[in-house]
Amino acid sequence: MWELSHNWAISYGKGPNTQGHRIVGGRNCLFGSRPYQVALLRNGHIYCGGSLIAPKWVLTAAHCSRRISTVRVHLGDYNLQVKEGTEQIRRIHNFFMHPGYNLRPHDNDFMLLELDKPALLNSYVNTINLATCCPSPGTRCSVSGWGTINAELHPTPGPDKGAQHL
């Protein structure tokens, strides 16, 4: 899992419209520092990320809905290639895409996943603190997930982190 620091200009409710807008860069997170971060895996490979917002609910991107029944939700995972003993794996019971989602250009790219059973909350698996208001332009925000630190490399097995200015 990685973390990244950067200045961003965003348009609320809109996601990236090309692969050239993906986030690349950052540094490795500390083990257990992002207990809300989940990995969506299909056939053992990272497919998408998300955030645990309640013991039975994950917020992710609507564009991650393809073949959702084959996806496993990994909670408390750090290095996706190593069993640390902190992992919890859940199936998806149901999913709800934003009714205004549009594949192109990714308008309202949000989806809720209902897990088959609640997560057991602990220091490695916990819910994210949801914002009570929209951040002002220039506010420093953090992003995290499994991905690449270099645009030419394959995804990292461990989590990375980043802080963004919105």
TrEMBL record:
Q: Which SUPFAM superfamilies match?
A: Trypsin-like serine proteases (SSF50494)
Q: Which residue ranges traverse the bilayer?
A: none
InterPro entries in the cross-refs: Peptidase_S1_PA, Peptidase_S1_PA_chymotrypsin, Peptidase_S1A, Trypsin_dom, TRYPSIN_HIS
Highest taxon listed in the record's lineage: Eukaryota
Q: Name one GO molecular function term.
A: serine-type endopeptidase activity
Q: Which PROSITE patterns match?
A: TRYPSIN_DOM (PS50240), TRYPSIN_HIS (PS00134)
What is an example of a Pfam family matching this protein? Trypsin
Q: Where is the Peptidase S1 domain?
A: 23-166
Under the heading SMART domains, the entry gives: Tryp_SPc (SM00020)
| Keyword Phosphoprotein recorded | no
| GO biological process terms on file | proteolysis
Q: Which UniProt keywords apply?
A: Disulfide bond
The protein here is known as Peptidase S1 domain-containing protein
Q: Which organism is it from?
A: Chelonoidis abingdonii (Abingdon island giant tortoise)
Q: What is the lineage of its organism?
A: Eukaryota, Metazoa, Chordata, Craniata, Vertebrata
